[in-house]
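Quick illustration, no need to memorize.
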Amino acid sequence: MSTTDTTTSFQESDTRGKPPYVNIISQATSLRQPSPMAEPKRPGHSRHKSSIRTEDTFTKPRDIEKHSKLPYFLRMHGSITPRMLVPLAFIGLWATLITCISEFVYELVVSEILLTVLGFVVGLGISFRTSSAYERYVDGRKFWAQLSQTSRDLARHIWIHVDERHEADAQLGKTDLLGKVTALNLILAFAVSLKHRLRFEPYAQYEDLEQLISHLATFAGDAFDPETSELKPKTSWKRGGEYLGLTFAESNPRKAIKRSKKNLGNLPLEILTYMSAYVNASVKSGQLPGGVQEAMVMANLASLNEVLAGTERVLNTPLPIAYSIAISQITWVYVMMLPFQLWHALKWITIPGTIVGAYIILGIAAIGREIENPFGRDENDLPLDKFCEALEDELNVIAGRKPPRMEDFIACEDNTIMFDSSYSSLAMKSTEDIRAGLRARTKIRAGFKGQGQGQGQAGGHGNGEKADV
């Protein structure tokens, strides 16, 4: 349905007096258009669908909604095996060299005590590296869960507790409704802008964000410059190098930030400022009653700010570089010492044995590096795009119906309260009769439970004796 048709349907439903279905995003396709490189929109710039799908295969976080019937040891998407191919090839050549020298020239053998001591140190280092990286991953997921919960609460408070003054003036009520829809748009914009900020994408001209905040004055929007913001498309060699985990092929993730000549600001924080301004105006106009409702809304805004600070802490506080360098060096020393120990016992089996050992040790270390930043675009990173789409759907559900009134869902014939009795039939009874029915319902429920327990005890008797109920 086009935008014109949607607007017409809204007007028709208003004239019939029926609550219209309000979509909080006028251009509903904004979040549905994939943008794997998350490049700002530029005139004359387009990307072919084929290239997008190819890049998504190697760079997109794994879709948790998809189901694979392959056993885990045969799966490649999300595996660290592709990143291990080059290191394992080097280790295989090294093990072959040491084995050939030991077999044909001179036996290169070291004591097992050295590798035993090194193995203990390597185990501690890898364990520390993996546990700290997983802790950061869990923290990132907790903060995003807090974002989802707070966004739902804030949207619910705004949609229900902010009054629409239709009775005072029709035009004023319409203005209030559009203001509430705009506020819900800002909630979604906060989540989307936070996603881009955590991925070092500093601008406001992204496909899933521009339509939400194009009417706002922000530093990120003012700083956009097509010349400095132009990102060169990655070549096949570069994409392949990143897929294989080659460090020299990886680009600086902060490249877009460093190339900007203007102050980029903090877009999620600026959106929070606009949301606070809306709440302040609602309180002053009397739409949002002061007291509990105002305190709850302000607490939700403070919670969103806490999410912003927490995710930035996870992003900008990696494992100290000294630990990363030391653990990497110790791990490689241990792996390269394996052929010297294994040759005396395994001979030519030393080569595959060393490769297997290196895969185990280097693989676990690679997993720690993989999940250290949970907000990126690697296969094992958090699917932030899916999270934002889910939040959009939930906000659409909240705004999809007119704020309910108590009499609409309580004093109605379809409200079956107890014993197949509707509201109208029970309203004719006295208060004591209603309370007596509530007590009877409790006793009936307890009786059903007692019968179930009695049947279970009776079934447990092997002599066919009946249990007392």
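Confidence is low (pLDDT under 50) at residues 6-59, 458-469.
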